[in-house]
Amino acid sequence: MSSTRALGRATRDAFGDVLVKLGAERGDVVVLDADLAKSTRSGKFQAKYPERFFDMGICEANMCGVAAGLAASGKTVFIASFSSFLLCKGFDQLRMAVAYPGENVKIIGTHGGITLGEDGASQMSIEDFALALSLPGVVVCHPADDESAKQLLTQIAAQQGPAYVRLGREKAPTLYSANDKVELGRAQVLRDGGDLTLVANGLMVGLALDAAEQMAATGVEARVIDVHTLRPLDSATLAAAARETGAMVVVEEHLKVAGLGSVVAQAVVESHPVPMRFVGLEGYAESGSPAALLAKYGLTAEKIVAAAKEVLAAKR
Amino acid sequence: MSMNALSQAECVAKCRVIRRHIIEMLAEAGSGHPGGSLSAAEVVTALYFHFLRQDPAQPEAADRDRFILSKGHAVPVQYAAMAEAGYFEVSELSTLRRIDARLQGHPVKGTLPGIEASTGALGQGLSIACGHALAGKMDAAGYKVFCMMGDGEIDEGQVWEAALFAAHQKLSNLIAIVDANGIQLDGRVEDILGLEPLVDKWAAFGWSVIEIDGNDMGQVFDALERAVANTSGQPVCIISRTVKGKGVSFMENGVEWHGVAPTAEEAERALAEIGGVA
Ligand SMILES: Cc1ncc(C[n+]2csc(CCOP(=O)(O)OP(=O)(O)O)c2C)c(N)n1
């Protein structure tokens, strides 16, 4: 990716590992996939526990409904596909059969955002936070790297109730070590600073850190917060950041209209309003290499720095 | 028939050229879906070079036949045919999947003239095709609507909703083609989610069904002739039994060649097997 940080594994690889571990520890874990088991890495679980894995075929809607029934009968169910297909095709089933009754279904959408690359816009989910956030009671999470994905997925498995997790196709920069404690629902301050706050999640966290380093060279100290959990949102950490830094930029690999930026803005407006800017997507993208796409669609450290300059000016 | 229709024998030769383009495009792009592009080559060639009444110079002509590639990941076969048919320069094929290219990884309506629908999320094309066919009936227009789906794709419930609708509305101007190559992404269709007896299913849904070896140009021509001449009052479904990866021995029937592009060396071997250089 365009971040200068050392690359670790893709977050979908963490998912495969967590599933295998859960399979060994718990007999109630059942995994469903809709003909993308190789890509989502649920195939790792399939290889070890074939009797608890079901390839549903290209039937995302049916998969969501079946998962609800399995969960209602006592299973802890993971369903996986590309996030675009899972949320778009399964939305009504997720609404009626999973979210409304609060079933214990873990919705794992891989290949999130535009960085899935060459396959193009039909496969890219740029609206999944919006859809998942519109399902009341569903935890919404987007880890930034391998280690945080492992920890967050493990916590989500241990909790009762529905959750949506967006994972990525591409290798992600390493941000956490096994010594770091990443907690669901607790935003992680990765860099301290008093001049402004950069809020991001997923691959955008690495870019935000890059931007913060660029700004530090000019004497501006940015706080960088990884909001890996969009719901429940860590409003306290965000309010403190708003209060202490007085300006905020939110960066996301998602449509700007209804994702991380929206929920963070809502929290900040309710606690301590400060000037804010938003770096995200305006519309559908296209085919291309992940790096070329990030550059063309404005998800770069340079764009973050430019937005930071705007909020800093507004702050004065 | 199109004005410069090729004969069946000429289509056999053209089909080799199409297969060569598929391999070259994918190798150049470094990603994409060879298996399902190659399996559909005969049908797509016959459509573009004999059956579709389309004029590349007037891609939006109201009376054009419509072709919707619902299994959008196989779009290299369509791009190859469109380039050879004159929709754009053959040299543009090398831009597949690049940033700013018109040749997107899956078909995008509005980006490239001649593409009728944005597909790539499987299961939606037949509904769109029903809409075109219904409009054609309402307007008493003479055009036909062709829609190609994968056999894995027809797992999707929406396909069967569309199938019910088309039969109910007697969309006899609609021709569905299932490229039944027996393999989807994770494995063989009959292992993942069985579809057989497929002919009986479509017949039970009220369609006039024709089953062929879809890699045999003679049978493809015969089926499309019958489908175009359809007087049954029902929509027509061609179950086109094909081989995934057809024409490249090391790809044929290989689950692993669903979505992996050949390396330069593999492409060379594939091209040598396909032959057909002018
Ligand atoms: C709704 C949806 N779910 C999943 C996918 C991912 N996907 C792409 S191709 C494919 C398999 C398609 O199999 P088939 O229709 O038989 O195509 P073919 O074998 O002809 O390539 C899958 C699951 C998708 N594109 N759309």
Account of the 3D structure:
The complex is a heterodimer of chains A (316) and B (278). Chain A has 316 residues and is an alpha/beta fold. Chain A is built from 13 helices and 14 strands. Chain A has helices at 11-25, 37-40, 43-48, 60-72, 83-89, 91-99, 128-133, 146-158, 204-216, 235-245, 260-271, 290-296, 301-315; strands at 7-10, 29-33, 53-55, 76-82, 105-110, 139-141, 163-166, 171-173, 188-191, 196-200, 222-226, 229-231, 248-255, 276-281. Chain A is globular, with a radius of gyration of 19 Å. Chain B has one domain: Thiamin diphosphate (ThDP)-binding fold, Pyr/PP domains (Rossmann fold, 3-Layer(aba) Sandwich), CATH 3.40.50. A 5-stranded parallel sheet of chain B has the order 1-2-3-5-4, with helices on both faces. In chain B, helix 1 packs across helix 4 (75-85) and helix 1 runs antiparallel to helix 10. In chain B, 55% of the residues are buried. The A-B interface holds A 33, 35-39, 43, 55-59, 61-62, 84-85, 88-89, 117-123, 286-289, 292-293, 296 and B 29-32, 72-73, 97-101, 104-106, 108, 118-123, 152-153, 155-157, 184-187, 192-193. Bound molecules: thiamine diphosphate (TPP). Thiamine diphosphate sits between chains B (33, 35-36, 39, 71, 73-74, 120-123, 150-153, 179, 181, 183-185, 244, 258) and A (34-36, 58, 85, 89).
